From TrEMBL:
Domain of life: Eukaryota
GO molecular function, one term: low-affinity nitrate transmembrane transporter activity
Protein name from the UniProt record: Protein nrt1/ ptr family 5.10
Keyword field: Membrane, Phosphoprotein, Transmembrane, Transmembrane helix, Transport
Amino acid sequence: MSIETPLLLDTATNAVDYKGRRVLRSNSGGWRSACFMIGVEVAERFAYYGISCNLIMYLTEQLGQSTATAAENVNTWLGMASLLPLLGAFVADSYLGRYHTIIIASCIYILGLGLLTLSAMLTSISTSNNMGMNKVTLGSSELQVILFFISLYLVAVAQGGHKPCIQAFGADQFDVEDPVECRAKSSFFNWWYFGLCSGSSVATLIISYVQENLSWGLGFGIPCVVMVIALGLFLLGTRTYRYSITEVKSPFVRIGRVFVTAIKNRRAKPSEIAIEEEACRTLPQHNFEQFKFLNKALQCKVCTVSEVEEAKAVLRLVPIWVTSLGYAIVFAQTSTFFTKQGATLDRTIFPGFEIPAASLQFFISLAIVLFIPVYDRIFVPIARAITTKPFGITMLQRIGIGMLLSVICMVVASLIEIKRLKTAKEYGLVDMPDVTIPMSVWWLLPQYVLSGIAEVFTVVGLQEFFYDQVPIELRSVGLALYLSIFGVGNFLSSFLVSIIEEVTGGDGKDSWFADNLNQAHLDYFYWLLAGLSAVIKSLSA
């Protein structure tokens, strides 16, 4: 008894090892396993941002698309990449489990990146053999463009399987029943995002330079190699991981059945489900009065109380999901119009050396990397001392602060764009889009830094909220729903650009998104986004 009791106390809750055996906290999971996940995330984000950070420049300079069309294509791809995690989470939680889904997604990732590299190399050969002609020629070049978009969306599919599972699997390495590991899990989300931003920041600095100064093929090839390393690193930690016992059940089927049954029983008399509802009242975790119409799914015992609670848990996320869309639209601008702004300014660091416009996204990641330790080690303890709350401020307060910062970011971006346009006019460069405006690119630094600090509050807060507010079996779904915010946000951004482009006259001088940015009005667009975000935030307050 004296030997068994300590072992029972040390046994991880609802977890087994790779052979299906019960595991102890002392020799599995925790930070020893989470570090593998963070390392994989660093590599995966390096690969992903190596593609996405400079994509708008590839579309406009290599494929000859207009600024508005390229922005729409980038937003559509980013939107799809952020929505597909819903499918990845479904596959992981219902059939394959997170571990196997990550492996399969990594293989698809490598295939997509390999084909993307091939398409870029073929495009380079085509353009070098067609000097003086349009960058996208007929015939074989059309096949190259098709190959490019197929490979690009293969990367989106792979990201859809990888993204919700790797983070949920990493968080699964901490036992919420253990006080020490429960506190460590909260820090895990902060350090997870620290690792994410480390990978993306290196990619925006190195890969964007390689792409614009050496070769686009090499610029896409390096992320492919890094993704191979990421898969190897993930497999290396297999023996240390904790695997959730319940992760292969089908939460989507259970939740869907609750809604279908509740609709079928919508005309049921109160007396017909009184007994089931009375049973619900005895369960402390069941929110009986909230979304009461779902209680009708309990009639005839088609659905269990726990299944109804799962459906209610998902519905409770909807208000936060909707009110976060304004932030997501602002978030979408950092990889599109921010980059195009920077391309018009003086990017000279020293004579003969210019930084790529996309590399300015590094400062978003740098702001995050520098501010996360400040938040975790300074802000939280101070806030905890004032509020007496375990984490200083609530998750919703954290999300709200980030939304406010995103509004300020758009206001600052608009003011800086007004100065850029004024400078172009003063120097007579309004009709000369290929001439660099004599204004330092560092004027854009405040909007990038504000965007990064806003992410520390809102994005990390949303990650933790959507993971924490759902049952264990739904955590991949929760994180996929969080990612879908940014998917829909990108689609909404693409929709706004398309509508505004149509209303303001295409590529004429009145267009907000003219190819000649010196004649465009990005400042109007930023003011519009600031106003929309402020209205949405005020409605959610």
